UniProtKB/TrEMBL annotation:
GO terms for molecular function: dipeptidyl-peptidase activity; serine-type peptidase activity. The lineage of its organism: Bacteria, Pseudomonadati, Bacteroidota, Sphingobacteriia, Sphingobacteriales. Residues 106-409 form the Dipeptidylpeptidase IV N-terminal domain. Gene3D superfamilies: alpha/beta hydrolase, Dipeptidylpeptidase IV, N-terminal domain. It comes from Sphingobacterium yanglingense. This is Dipeptidyl-peptidase-4.
């Protein structure tokens, strides 16, 4: 299939089934990617394709009730009154006799909900721009090299607010009359230096980076009122050792809900802040024996008509939804059981309904459910033994699902909110699928039960034309961090040439007990003990796989991972050398004393509180155990997992007189895959290492 033929009408437009397939580079028409379907409005869904009559795009739209489809031409979009470029420049187009304005040097420029103002940061301060008056106002004045208003400290951007915020730490109120923001003081946070060696002299790059037990930034929460032209500070002591999660405005903009967490990260208090006075009232308190994650997205969602809110919490051992009133009184749990709610997708207050994605049926799959707010009655809306990726219509009456499992290529269908299939939309199978399926590369999802009752999931991938009469290597691909599972029961492979994967190797992804499949119950095993259960569970599954498939050569079992996966790769090589014979580790933590405070202390507490755990979780203390072939990779400008992690392991291995391989990538941060030549170099090097040490 080539691009000219990339749009295939599965059935006539008037029958309503139109599918755009994205071509692959294979000589076979095996399995094709499906162009995403989207909702145009509550009554029409469709997809974009290249126009057959012009240079513009066109949208193929279908009426969800009648199935009747039509073509809508998509021209060049009209120029926006305000546009923000990737470099932060803001263009305000000419209108009402006023000339165009270009504003430069602004960070994280954010338009107010009513489109009358812009908020942004610059040089550590928060600013406000009045679009109508074209006036700029500086809201704070103490910004400095280590003091930031509305701009996040490194530790908050990485571990709490999230990289998606791009260091933004301010939030407009729904009524556009107030701005909540965080004020950070990094003055006492230790500095980590990175050597940028690109010229005659080395440039030292400084980053405020707290290690476990170090001083964290001092943080306070401010609220600026446009009407009063004043800042009110929420009633917290900035000197206290604490963390603040993302604040959430009520729909009425009359209160700001602030998430407060102690330094030990096991006690959460959510308070409602009065924006006029800064006074707070406690709404919700939660304590756990291990930790509470503050980076849960959409932890709080408000019901504006009922003066209630929904709260996501894993306090019972699994992530579930709870309904509270605005005074913090629990009305009822809306979901329960030994499964996890993944997300709250839509709330329909008028109908008393909530739509969620969860894994009640199987932890390797996602399903869409409808929950009644009045009693918590729950109905599964998706179907079959598939994992579903769903997209609700704006009114919630219908949804589109893309569904598959490990032996069923992706399909798409539209259903109503009772779970009835309205029509099938697409099937990614190509014309050569049935002919090749018995010979092509394929995957299986299996479970392996531990002696203490955990059914660990694994996805095993086999090459094309598998010869079971010869020996094959096994490559274990892992990440391994807490609540970061990778095993999914969905179709993989086939977008390239399904017959090209003839390498003499089996690949497997494995998830351990703390990966999220078993909720917080499983994660709690990792508390104060990182690197232990991960390796035990991985080694157990590999040994079971070797028993089940005797054509796997036990002398050619490799493991590969990056970041936390690099850490586990090294620990597996050092703590289970009888199982893992070779490993490729990149960007690896090697000792948790060298990683950041918020992430590490969440699971390990501080080195003073848990000295034994820090000792047993350090790769440096097992260097003498290395028996297999180990390849270490590291970017020299990694501001996340610093290069010192790799260097300290190199030193320990050398002192133990152990041979290994090392590759540094100058100028690369936490990964080098965005650097074309370095990425190509790594692929070539890894392929050579794999060919040499991981294949019989």
């Amino acid at each position: 299939m080539n691009w000219i033929k990339s749009v295939t009408l599965v059935c006539s437009l008037w029958a309503g089934g139109a599918l755009a397939q994205i071509p692959n580079n294979s000589p076979y028409d095996y399995v094709n990617r499906l162009t995403p379907f989207r909702w145009e409005d509550s009554s029409h869904y469709g997809f974009f394709r290249r126009s057959t009559t012009s240079n513009n795009s066109e949208s193929v739209l279908t009426n969800v009730k009648t199935g009747r489809a039509y073509i809508k031409q998509v021209g060049v979009p009209l120029a926006k009154a305000i546009s923000i470029s990737k470099n932060g420049d803001v263009h305000i187009n000419a209108r009402d006799g006023k000339q165009e304005i270009v504003l430069r040097g602004m960070q994280n420029t954010t338009l107010s909900p009513d489109s009358t103002h812009l908020a942004y940061t610059k040089d550590g301060n928060l600013f406000l721009y009045n679009i109508e008056r074209r006036e700029n106002k500086q809201l704070t004045s103490d910004g400095a090299s280590s003091i930031y208003n509305g701009w996040s400290s490194w530790i908050y951007n990485e571990e709490i607010l999230g990289r998606g915020m791009n260091y933004r730490a301010f939030w407009w109120s729904p009524d556009s009359r107030k701005i909540a923001f965080m004020h950070f003081d990094d003055t006492e946070v230790p500095i980590h230096y990175m050597a940028q060696d690109t010229g005659q002299h080395v440039n030292q790059i400084a980053i405020r980076y707290p290690l476990p037990g170090d001083k964290n930034p001092e943080v306070k929460v401010g609220i600026y009122s446009l009407e009063a032209d004043k800042i009110k500070w929420a009633d917290y002591n900035s000197k206290e050792d604490q963390y603040f999660g993302q604040p959430i405005w009520t729909p009425e903009s009359d209160e700001l809900y602030v998430q407060w967490l102690n330094r030990g990260q096991d006690s959460l208090i959510i308070s409602a802040i009065d924006p006029l006075t800064g006074d707070k009232r406690s709404i919700y308190t939660e304590t756990q024996k291990t930790w509470i994650a503050l980076d849960q997205e959409d932890k709080i969602q408000f019901l504006s008509q009922r003066k209630q809110f929904l709260l996501l919490s894993d306090r019972t051992g699994y992530m579930h939804v709870y309904l509270y009133d605005r005074d913090g009184n629990l009305i009822r749990p809306l979901t329960q059981g030994d499964w996890n709610v993944k997300s709250i997708d839509m709330i329909q207050e008028k109908d008393g309904l909530m739509y969620i994605t969860g894994n009640r049926e199987n932890s390797t799959r996602d399903d869409l459910y409808k929950v009644e707010l009045k009693n918590g009655n729950i109905q599964r809306l998706t179907f079959g033994d598939y994992t579903h990726k769903t997209n609700l219509s704006p009114d919630g009456k219908y949804f589109i699902t893309n569904y598959s499992n490990y032996n069923t290529p992706e399909r798409a269908a539209v259903l109503d909110n009772k779970g009835k299939i309205i029509r099938e939309l697409a099937d990614s199978k190509g014309k050569d699928y049935d002919r090749l399926v018995g010979k092509a590369s394929y995957s299986e999802v299996q479970r392996f039960r531990t002696s203490d009752g955990f059914d660990l999931p694994a996805r095993i991938s086999f090459p094309a034309n598998l010869d079971k009469n010869r020996k094959h290597g096994l490559m274990v691909l892992i990440y391994g961090g807490p609540n970061a599972g990778t095993v999914r029961d969905g179709f993989q492979g086939g977008f390239g040439d399904p017959m090209a994967d003839t390498v003499n190797m089996i690949r497997v992804q494995i998830d351990h007990r703390g990966s999220g499949h078993f909720g917080k119950v499983g994660q709690n095993y990792m508390h104060r003990n990182l690197g232990d259960w991960e390796v035990k569970d991985y080694a157990f599954v590999v040994e079971e796989i070797k028993k089940k498939y005797p054509f796997i050569d036990p002398q050619y079992v490799g493991i590969r991972g990056f970041s936390y996966g690099g850490y586990i790769t090294i620990m597996a090589m050092l703590k289970a050398p009888e199982t893992f014979k070779s490993g490729v580790a990149g960007g690896s933590v090697t000792d948790w004393r060298f990683y950041d405070s918020a992430y590490t202390e969440r699971f390990m507490d501080t080195p003073r509180e848990n000295p034994e755990g820090y000792f047993t979780s350090s790769t440096l203390n097992y260097a003498s155990n290395l028996q297999g072939k180990l390849l270490l990779n590291q970017g020299t400008m990694d501001d996340n997992v610093h290069m010192r992690n790799t260097i300290r392991l190199v030193d320990a291995l050398q002192e133990a007189r152990k041979q290994f391989e090392l590759m540094l990538y100058p100028g690369a941060a936490h990964g080098w895959f965005y650097l074309h030549n370095k990425a190509a170099h790594f692929r070539e090097m890894e392929a050579e290492f794999t060919e040499k040490y991981m294949k019989p």
